[in-house]
Amino acid sequence: MEKIIRIGTRESQLAVWQATTVQQLLLQQGYKSELVYIKSDGDIDLVTPLYALGVQGVFTKTLDAALLSNKIDIAVHSMKDVPTQLAEGIVQAAVLKRASYKDILVYKDPSSVVSGQWSVIATSSIRRKAQWLNRYPDTQVENLRGNVNTRLQKLKDSNWTGAIFAAAGLERIGLRPENSIELDWMLPAPAQGAIMVVCRKEEAFYKEAVVHLNDADTAICVKAERDFLKVLMGGCSTPISALAIIEDNAVHFKGSICSLDGKDKIDVERIVNIDEANSIGADAANELLNKGGKQIVESIRNATK
User: Fold this and answer.
1) Is 81 a catalytic site residue?
2) Residues 43, 64, 73, 81: which is the catalytic one?
3) What is the pTM (predicted TM-score) of this model?
4) Which end of the chain has fewer CB atoms at under 10 Å, N or C?
5) Cα separation of 194 and 218, whole Å?
C-alpha cells in the first residue's frame, strides 16, 4: 500500500497555504499526502502579547507534540516561529526557497507617510516595536494579535495610524493592501519569509521525501540568522534582528539588538565567502556582545524574568 504522508499544519489561512505548497511540491516528486489541521496555543490565545506567552515554540509545540506522538509525519512551520533548539527527536528536513523577508507598514492615512508622523502603531512583535521606537520614539505602540486576516480587520476598525506585518505573510495569500509600504530600514526577524519542514529524527522515508524541497542558499542564510539568535538569547520574543543574503558567492550578514524601549541599538555587519560562512552568525553575535550587546541582553533577561 502506498504511503500517504500526513502533513501537520495550523488552521490559519497562511499556515494552510504553506502546507498546501509543501503538498504540491511533494506531489511533483511523486508522493501523495494529506493535511492534518492542529490548533496551536498561539492561535487559541489572541489577547495576551506574544512576549508574555513565553513565545518560544508557541506556534510550533503543538505540532511538534503531534509529530512525536505519530499523529502526523511531517510538520510545516513559518521558520521565524521555530525555536533555535528543536525538540528532542525532531529534525529539520527542508527549508523552502525564501519569499520576501521584509516588514511592511499598512497605513490608514497617506499623509502620515509623507509627514513621517505616526501617533499609534500596532504590532505583537517585540522586535518590531523596539526598532520602531528606536526610529520614532514618540509613537504609542499597541498590541495586535491574531492571524493576518484578523489583524487587518482590527486595523481597519481601530483609530491606529498603521500596523506592521511581514510582507511574505500578506503576499502569499494575496492580502497585501495597496496602502502599504516596505520598511527597508527595519531588519527582519531571523528566518523571516522562510518555511521549514520538520520530521522525526529516525524516519528515513519522510526525510528522503522532503529533502528534494530544500533550497540550499536559503538554508545557508537562515542558519546564519538563527545561529546569531541562538548565541545572543535563543528566543524569538526578543528585539533581535538578522539578515543574510548571498551575492557574488559571498554571504552578506547584518544583525542588531535593541533594548526593549528602543533607546539603545547595536548593529553588526560581516561579509565572508560562502565556503566560509558556517560560523558567520555565531561570530557576528559574539562581536555584537563585545560591542556592548551584553548589557542589552542582561537588561532584557532581567525585564522578562
Assistant:
1) yes
2) 81
3) 0.91
4) N
5) 8
